[in-house]
Amino acid sequence: MDSEGDHGEEITFMSTPSNQTYALTIDGQAVRTAAMIDVRNPATGEVFAQAPAAGADDLDRAVAAASHAFEQWSRTPVAERKALLVKAARIIDDHADELAALFTREQGRPLPGAAAEIKGAAMWLKAGTMLDIPVEVTEDTATRRIEVHHVPLGVVCAIVPWNFPVLLAIWKIGPALLAGNTIVVKPSPFTPLTTLRIGELLADVFPPGVLNVICGGDELGPLMTAHKGFAKISFTGSTATGRRVMESAARDLKRITLELGGNDAAIVLPDVDVDAVAAQLFEGAFHNTAQVCVATKRLFIHEDIYDRLRDRLHQLAKDLPVGDGTQQGVRYGPVQNEPQYRRVVGLIEEARREGLTLLEGGAVPERGYFVPLTLVDNPPDDARVVTEEAFGPVLPLLKFSDIDDVVRRANDTEYGLAGAVWSADVEQAVAIAHRLDTGTVWINQNLQSTPFTPLAGAKQSGFGQENGLPGLLEFTRPKAIYIPKAGK
Ligand code: NAD
Q1: Residue 165: pLDDT above 80?
Q2: Residues 374, 359: contact at Cβ < 8 Å?
Q3: Same-domain check for residues 251 and 288
Q4: Active-site residues (predicted)?
Q5: Angstrom distance (rounded) from CA 202 to CA 225
C-alpha cells in the first residue's frame, strides 16, 4: 500500500546469505524444530530456504509463555510499553536492507517495494504509539463517578497472509502490545522468513513471552484458532478462511477481528484527464502484482472515455517490466505462490475459452510464477473474472453509461472492502462515494491508508477493524467501574 511510505531514501540491498537458518521465537528464545517447511522463491519456483514447522507442542509453549508474560506486561505502564515499541520500530528500520532482500526472495515483490514495506512497517509501529487509550467517564455526579476503562484481553493469536506479510503482522503486533496484550504471530507458510527474522531481531526488546513468532504447515492455523489459551484472534486472509476462523472462535467465544477479501470497484467518470489518471489507475490495480486486498479489481469506465483509457492501460501493460524483483527497473514481480499462480492462470484461460477479449501485457520470464499483466475488455458482469477476487494480474474493464446503474453494479458483490471514484468534480465523486457499500472510498487516489484511520471491511470483507483508535480498542474490552463519592 502507498502507506508503506515513500521515504525518498537511497536504498542499498544486501544479498541474503544462502546458509541462513531461521528459528521460531518463543519466550524470548530461538526455537528450532525437527520438522521443516520449504520456502520457494516465486521468481524461480525453487526452494531457497527452509523454515521451522511448529507443532502442537511448540504452540502450547508459545501460548504458555505469552500467558505468563501477560501478567507483568499488562501491568507495565503504557509509557514503557510504548517506548519498547518505538525501540522495536527503530531496529526494524535499521535492518531494512537485510529484511528487504529476504522479503523479495520469499515474496517476489521488487526490492524498492519490499524496502518500502519494511520501512513502512517501522513507521507504522512508531506512529501507533501516538494513540492513547481513553478512559471514558459516563457519569460524574454528586454521588458517583462511572469510568469506563479499556483493558487488555490476554493472549492474542495473529494470523497473517502472504501478500503484505510484514506490514500486516505489524498492524497486529503494535496495537496488541500497546494495549497490554501479549501475542503469538503466525505468518503464512509461503512467506514466513522475514517475520521469523523480525522475531529474532526483537527477541531481546520485549520481556520474554510478550512477542512470540511461530510458523508451520497448513495444520497450524486451525490448531491456533481452536487453542483455549487465546483470548482473541486477529486474522487477515481470505473470506473463505475467515469463515472457518469465525466458526472455530465461536466454540469458546474468542474475540475476533477479520480483515478479509475484496472485489473493489473503481468508477471513472467521463470528466477525468485520461492521460493524467491512466498510470495511477493501473498501479491501483496491479501494485504488488495485483495481490493487494484493496486493489481495484473491477474498473468501471464511462463509455465516453472507455476506448481511450482502455488503450492507455493496455499500453502500460505492454510497457511496464515484469520480472525477478532483484533486478533493477523491474516494476512487477511474480505471483507469490504456485496455487495462486494456477488460480490466476485458470481464470485467464477460462475467460479465453468463453471468448472474452483479453488484452495481454508484455513478455514475462518463463521460469517462476509469472503471469502477463492482463486486461479483459468489457466482459459481462457475471463472468467469473468479474465476480471473483482474482488476487492476481488480471483486471476486467467494464463500460458504463449511467451513474445509478454503475453504483448498483459496483455494490453487486458479497464483498465491501474499498472502492474509488475518479472525477474532476470532487463533490459529485463524494456523493457517489457515500453510495458505495464499502469500508473505505478514495476520491482520485487509491491504496491509501494511515495508522490513524480504521480499515473496516463491509459485508463479507471483514468483521471489526484495524488501525486508528477503533482498531486499537479491538485489542481491549471495556470495563466499567462505579465509584461512590466520599460520604455518599
Ligand atoms: P488465506 O486465508 O489462505 O491465509 C491467510 C492465513 O491464514 C495464512 O497464514 C494461512 O496459513 C492461515 N490459514 C489458512 N487456513 C486456516 C485455517 N483454517 N484456520 C486458521 N488459519 C488458517 O489467505 P491468503 O491467500 O494468504 O491471502 C490472500 C487473501 O487475503 C485475499 O483474499 C486478500 O484479499 C486477503 N487480504 C485481506 C486484507 C485486509 O486487510 N482485508 C489484507 C491482505 C489480504
Answers
A1: yes
A2: yes
A3: no
A4: 259
A5: 25
For 83, other C-beta atoms within 10 Å of its C-beta total: 12
Q: Is the pLDDT of residue 487 over 80?
A: no
pLDDT value, residue 20 = 80
Q: Name all residues whose Cβ lies below 6 A of ligand 1.
A: 159-164, 168, 186, 188-189, 221-222, 225, 236-238, 241, 244-245, 259-262, 293, 389, 391, 417, 455, 457, 462
Count the residues in the chain. 488
Is 200 one of the catalytic residues? no
Cell, residue 394? 488480471
For residue 463, the cross-strand partners are: 258
Reduce the DSSP state of residue 201 to 3 states and report it. helix
C-alpha separations of 306 from 68, 395, 421, 444, 467 in Å = 60, 14, 15, 17, 36
pTM (2 decimals)? 0.96
Q: Does 360 share its domain with 229?
A: no
Residue 19 has a pLDDT of 60
Domain that holds residue 44: 24-260+461-480
Which phi and psi (to 5°) does residue 371 adopt?
A: -130, 130
pLDDT at 328 over 80: yes
The residue from 4, 106, 259, 283 that is catalytic is 259
Q: Which atom of ligand 1 has the smallest separation from the CA of 160?
A: 9
- Cell reading at 308: 481511450
- Same domain for 361 and 413, yes or no, is yes
Question: Residue 1 — pLDDT band, cuts 50, 70, 90?
Answer: very low
Collapsing DSSP to helix, strand or coil, 247 comes out as helix
pLDDT one-digit tens code per residue, 225-283: 999 999 999 999 999 999 999 999 999 999 999 999 999 999 999 999 999 999 999 99
Could you tell me the distance, in angstroms and rounded to a whole number, from the CA of residue 165 to the centre of ligand 1? 10
Structural domain count of the chain: 2
Three-state secondary-structure class, residue 443: strand
- Are 163 and 227 contained in the same domain? yes
Does one domain contain both 204 and 281? no
What is the reported pLDDT for 486? 85
CA angle 209, 215, 217 (to 5 degrees): 150
DSSP 172: H
Q: Which of 59, 195, 224, 241 to mutate to test the pocket of ligand 1 (most atoms within 8 A of CB)?
A: 241
Cell of 131: 494513540
